[in-house]
Amino acid sequence: MHTRLSVNINKIATLRNARGGNIPDVIKTAKDCELFGAEGITVHPRPDERHIRYDDVIELKEAVTTELNIEGYPTNEFLALVLKVKPTQCTLVPDASNVITSNQGWDTIKHKDFLKDVIEQLHEFGIRTSLFINPVEQFIEGAKIVNSNCIELYTGPFANIFTIDKYKAISPYVQSAKYAQSLDLKVNAGHDLNLENLAFFKKNIPFTAEVSIGHALISDALYYGLNNTIQMYLRQLKSIGS
Ligand code: PXP
User: Fold this and answer.
1) How far, in Å, is the centroid of ligand 1 from the Cα of 110?
2) pLDDT at 242
3) Whose CA is nearest to atom 6 of ligand 1?
4) DSSP labels for 30-45?
5) Where are the domains of the chain?
6) 3-class DSSP state for residue 133?
């Protein structure tokens, strides 16, 4: 089964912001990622705009010809941006405003009413919704109850344990992904996926609809170049893994 590679380009914006000016060019990078085979572009505008800026997201809407996925915590400002841009997909993440990177998934039971309301608004604008969650059955069931179209499994813990025991690392993800599938939820995955662990993830959860990858992919591109790197990640998604 085909798994889309969505490249998270936040790190490109971080590099640009370090100097001011427009090098590297975030919009050109997004277009080049698509040219090199990426099937989606992901951005995660944070409240302080330290990576991708709200203006970038508006420009990306015009530039991206595959799927634009906007991730983030649904503040009023974030939601106003998403409803204006109308991306293909919006991934809701329970980030505290001061975190370095996303480090946990939603408690979909505790935040049921809030999530239901936000998802309803996004659906009114025809935006596919995904909820970032840990591989926990009750939270997956909660994602179904609030009418999300997809879940994005938070793969940080998988990536950590993978280096010690890959079978132990993948086990809760396989179980959760199958459970999500049984509820007719599409399964996405993201965080800390890389050239070491991606093929194994894909082999074990072949019906993964989309992976969004930023940090490792952009770092690999320093050595291999962006075009080669994207080919390498696409190959991981096609190989049978080990
Ligand atoms: N998914 C979510 C919800 C994220 O917050 C991030 C990081 O911005 C990613 C996926 C991508 O993670 P990484 O940069 O480790 O590939």
Assistant:
1) 23
2) 42
3) 191
4) HHHHHHTT-SEEEE--
5) 4-238
6) strand
